[in-house]
């Protein structure tokens, strides 16, 4: 009798509670829909800490925060790409240089693959993308990519030599490289218009903190007076001396506001800081590290060739394609015959003419290639 009374009491009470809970749930959902619509129509955003997990996930897909994801953090990318001694190879890329229709990047990667001595080094190459399009293209073509954005600056377009955007891009690069050194990584920085033909590491000086390629090489690696450095190719070891030097280099932009990083370096190489911090500075021989300014004349020794002394993306692409063809022709010759033929590079006609027009030079670079 008691059990029957209890069951009769419990059943309607439970049903009543279920109805009340359902009404509360429906009221909450209806209120949320109305509130969300009102916020959207008034363009009001809730504080970030009130965003749902779904909203947080979608916001993480935006380019500005993409490099903050754990698998895309700078530390993660550098660690993945580093050699046993914490050395990485770095280059920078923007949309203009990654454009599939006229791509410096394609030529750059092709040069690595044209020799068995350099293709393995792609595992240690990190491409620093300066805009969203460059990052997307990098992810399709290469394993190690990092998105580096600069607040309020668009680096996606071709930055013409010595324009304000060009100067901002160059100094952003110097500041970034300083941060890599501070993280404990040695780096070999290479512009993307440097073609790689042989492993360069055997030709670096083992005792140097900072070593850099040249537009002109005097024949003496310690000659500060005559050697003219080129910032498009350098090998730097991470230590107190190199970090201090990069800080000084970056701060010197204020002393020389109308100069790019390369010309500033050519000035500060005489400053007392080099001796004060005991920086071991060496310049790289153009026999191994040449370019359009001063080419490596022996294809049996060349490691890299740079499209320096050249103005304009299309001119660079045109003449670099010819350079790659010269190299492929050389590699097609039986090894036993390569040293006998004394082959040379085809003169960079487009780059030579473009430089004449841009700087009104009297000297013909074509003659330098002979």
List keywords for this structure.
370 residues; alpha/beta; 2 domains; seven-stranded mixed beta sheet; globular; disordered N terminus
Written account of the structure:
The chain is an alpha/beta fold and 370 residues long. Helix content is 46%, strand content 13%. The strands form 2 sheets. It has a 7-stranded mixed beta sheet. Helix 8 links the parallel strand 2 and strand 3.
Q: How large is the radius of gyration? A: 29 Å
Question: Quick check: average pLDDT?
Answer: 79
- Please name the CATH topology of the largest domain: Spore Coat Polysaccharide Biosynthesis Protein SpsA, Chain A
**Poorly predicted sequence stretches spanning 5 or more consecutive residues:** 1-12, 32-68, 154-162, 361-370
Please give the alpha-carbon distance between the first and last residues. Answer: 116 Å
Listing every helix as H and every strand as E from the N terminus to the C terminus, the arrangement reads HHHHEHHHEHEHEEEEHHHEEEHHHH
> Can you tell me the number of structural domains?
2
- Distinct helical segment count: 16
Spatial order of the strands in the main sheet? 3-2-1-4-7-6-8
| Strand count | 10
Query: Helicity level, as a percent range?
Result: 40-55%
Range of strand content: 5-15%
State the name of the first-level CATH class of the largest domain.
Alpha Beta
- Principal-axes shape call: globular
Largest sheet features: 7 strands, mixed
Oligomeric form: single chain
Structure class: alpha/beta
